[in-house]
Amino acid sequence: VGLNATFVDVVDNTDPCNIIITRTWSLVDDCGNAAADQVQTITVQDNIAPTFTAPGDITIFSDASCAYDASVGVTGDVTDEADNCSVGLNATFVDVVDNTDPCNIIITRTWSLVDDCGNAAADQVQTITVQDNIAPTFTAPGDITIFSDASCAYDVSVGVTGDVTDEADNCSVGLNATFVDV
Question: Across the strands, what pairs with 93?
């Protein structure tokens, strides 16, 4: 006659990343003879990484004092963080700033997300470009009338006609205005 073993499970889910099911198997024949119970341990682990979407690449601009705000409120935050077993996940980021070109600063923001069980989503990279779009300022010398000498020659050098003053810029230093005469 066909015998069928039966089982009883005891579940320990105190650690949702490592659930332990202790399954006790029993077998009794038609005459009431019982085999020794046998125990099977089943471990349930979460090995599925969470998912998320990093914000898109963005260009922001420096202000009048050459400062910029690359906060998440300005550059965007991760959306749709999700996981099969963990809740309340928040992605984190690390910035690497390349400011070798002060007119075009590149921030490489690497977003990461790890669930409560240590499963990591693939990192996602957002590129934040910081540009200076504020023009420099200066004051040109005033209009002037000069006179030619006895041989009809004249001197229009900057020393005679005047030079630009107060060259200034929010991000550049040492600027010198140039001119073209017509």
Answer: 111
**Diameter of the chain by CA atoms?**
140
The pLDDT of residue 165 is above 80? yes
Distance from the Cα of residue 92 to its chain's centroid: 8
Distance in angstroms (rounded) separating the CA atoms of residues 167 and 177: 7
State the chain's mean pLDDT as an integer: 92
Residue type, 139: T
Looking only at the bridges linking them, the beta strands covering 165-168 and 6-12 are: unpaired
Which residues in the chain belong to E strands, given as ranges?
A: 6-12, 18-26, 38-45, 51-53, 58-61, 79-82, 92-98, 104-112, 124-131, 137-139, 165-168
Q: Is 142 exposed, middle or buried (0-12, 13-18, 19+ CB in 10 A)?
A: exposed
What is residue 161's three-state secondary structure? helix
d(CA 119, CA 28): 43
Six-digit token string for 19: 């659930």
Q: How would residue 29 be classed by pLDDT, with cut points 50, 70 and 90?
A: very high
Is the full-model pTM beyond 0.85?
no
Whole-angstrom distance, CA of residue 122 vs CA of residue 50: 9
